[in-house]
Amino acid sequence: MDTSYTPKEIMTIMAAREIKNGDIVFSGTGISMLAAMAAKKINAPDSVIFFETGAMDSLLEEIPFAVADPRIMYWAAANSSLTDAFATMQNRITGDRVIAILGAAQIDMYGNLNTTCIGDYFSPDIRFSGSGGGCDVASFVPRCIAFMQHETRKFVKHLDYLTSPGQLTGNGAREKAGLRPGGVSVVVTNLGVMRFDTDTGQMYLDQYYPGTTPGMILENTGFDMDVSRAAPADPPTPAELKILRENCDPQRLILGPA
């Protein structure tokens, strides 16, 4: 088997490794769903995947194209509702076990996300779909994985619009605003993995992939970032790649060309 890998493959595996047994994974579609499926088949078989449309613990024999795709409901433990899906995040028993996977157009050093627009809100250069539940997730869920392409236009000093809260301005600002601890806890990009300092709330480089360096990552980051704690990431193993390619996305619908 070819043990080389694409950026999407290593991003998927790195995100899957963040999911542990017993986690309740709130997933969207695309690469986030693929990461949740990979975790369940590789390292977290006792995790549970659920979707905003209410499907919980589906069999997921094929990759659905959207959260309203009927394949989301196939052999689900429960087909509930949007209300129940969001209630799971805020429930005192289940809420602490939820981990969510989000994407964004922009992220700042405190893990705040923009999924609304680029440019002025009233006259934007690009208008996106908005929160779509992302603000609720970032506000209530204790751990979130953010998927991003690592570019200076995406890792910015100041968001064009704050859609979903991370650590706000850091140093406890999130808790002072009345939000529970949580938000984006790890950022997985095509270059490395970032986390957030527990005291300052600022992003730091945790791992860099084979073929990248901390300097390369800094060149693609639009703000100062601590790289002193960075270590090389363990690349995907042959076993992880085999399961990802053959059991999760054999048609490479999400992974794309090899």
Automatic annotation (TrEMBL):
Molecular function GO terms recorded: glutaconate CoA-transferase activity
UniProt keyword annotations, A-Z: Transferase
Recorded superkingdom: Bacteria
Pfam families: CoA_trans (PF01144)
EC number(s) reported in the record: 2.8.3.12
PANTHER family according to UniProt: ACETATE COA-TRANSFERASE YDIF, CHOLESTEROL RING-CLEAVING HYDROLASE IPDB SUBUNIT
Protein name as catalogued: Glutaconate CoA-transferase subunit B
